[in-house]
Amino acid sequence: MKQSASVVLAVSATTLVAACGGSAESTSQDGEPQAGGTLRYALSQAPTCSDPAQGGTNQTIYVSRQIVDSLTDQDPETGEITPWLAESWEVSSDATQFTFVLKDGVTFSDGTPVDAEAVKATFDSVVNVLGAPKAQLGASYLSGYAGTTVVDPLTARVQFDAPNAQFLQATSTPQLGLLAKATTDKPAEERCLGDNIGSGPFVYESYQQDKAITLKKRSGYAWGSGVFSHDGEAYLDAIEFTIVPESGVRTGSLASDQLDAISDALPQDAPQIEASGGRVLTTSNPGTPFGFTPNITRPVLGDVEVRRALIPALNRQELVDTVLGPDFLPATGTLASKTPQYVKLDDVTYDPDRSRDILDAAGWVPGADGIREKDGRRLSFSVTFSAVFAGNQAILELVQQQLADVGVELVLDLVSTPEALARQASGDFDSTYGNSTRADGDILRTSYALDGRNNNRRGPIPELDDVLARQLSTTDPAERKEILADAQQLVSSNGLLIPTIELSQAIGAGPRVHDLEFEASARLQFFDTWIG
After folding, report:
1. Number of H helices, E strands in the chain
2. Does residue 31 or residue 296 have the better pLDDT?
């Protein structure tokens, strides 16, 4: 099938589901956009790496997305996959071969051409140089990668050894954005130092890990995505990112005009932001909602009945109402409601009596202090988490109370974001707490499949393994949605994700900031942003 700007690929034709809260907003206002100026932006956490291929956290992607373009883009309103660096593409009927025709005349910021060789070098480096330990998301998108053939200077054919229907949407992500040879030739660690070379509308000017990052406008940029609102160069001259972990400090600095925009504006911050003439912009994240991912090799969480009992024990609406406010949604399944292919699951319903019944039947008996026991073992487990989202600790403290009410002891293990990622990679955890953002239901495979990240450290579950593989084999949207509906239910019934709330991006923007936009995966795109 041939693909261009006017035709929608079947696999990604499903419209994004509009959430009943946390609706997407922008700072668009009346007036003619003005070029120039520097946007001062405060991140709530330090980026983990300057390399788009190795980035996973929202705060990292807010920065690295600006320096890299992708083969395709995804319309945040419709979910349609649209041209960006590729002007057209063809997908084989068995979804094993993807042929991209690139725009002519595009260059990386070092002047080298964005060509088929660059496509090959970028994807080869994700698989062969970075690998899953360093590029967890990108490597999972390229699962089964057999190589890229340079058909001619502007035509690249990407081949997989098995069907991979999710790959076209994956080419819209920053993790598979194209990078120059000067970057892809480097080892993983050297790619985190802030000198990455992409073809994006901004380039790195300075990069001080854990302190500050400055991006400057790419002169001559003229190949933006069709999703963008204007052609040509970005409006902003520069973006200055600083790391400000304290929510109150971020809000105070925005209100006093020391900053123009901030990450993770909490509900209690809104009055101060609005009083200074600013506003809070929100949008719900697609992908997997926030929740517990149990390590099922651990004794307590190795019991599937315990994992199943945890799901109805949680009062998700209370978490939203008490900690977060109306711009957030309680999780209602193992995908967030804004994700294509999402289905609501009856399992994900607050019912503490059901939780107690499951634990009673499994032989877990309340002890003297109310915490259940079985064969001399307390029903206790820890959760490893970081403050990558400002509300995490308060949510987990309330979850701790809810679980205690059914006889489960939860121990909170707060660590730094790098430590949380390291623990997850090594398997040194009882459970982890987090979410994963992607505007495609294949996020279940990348997170939970045996040949994906396998965050649960699980062994085979034949029925689940089958549906996660089969959804890669069809480009028919209705069939794929049906298969992924089964996958969502099986992730829940096996207790592989105990969901809590859907993440919403909440960005505080000052009165001078216009057209600060969210892209399809709810991350910020600064190309259309301007300062009034």
Report:
1. 16, 28
2. 296
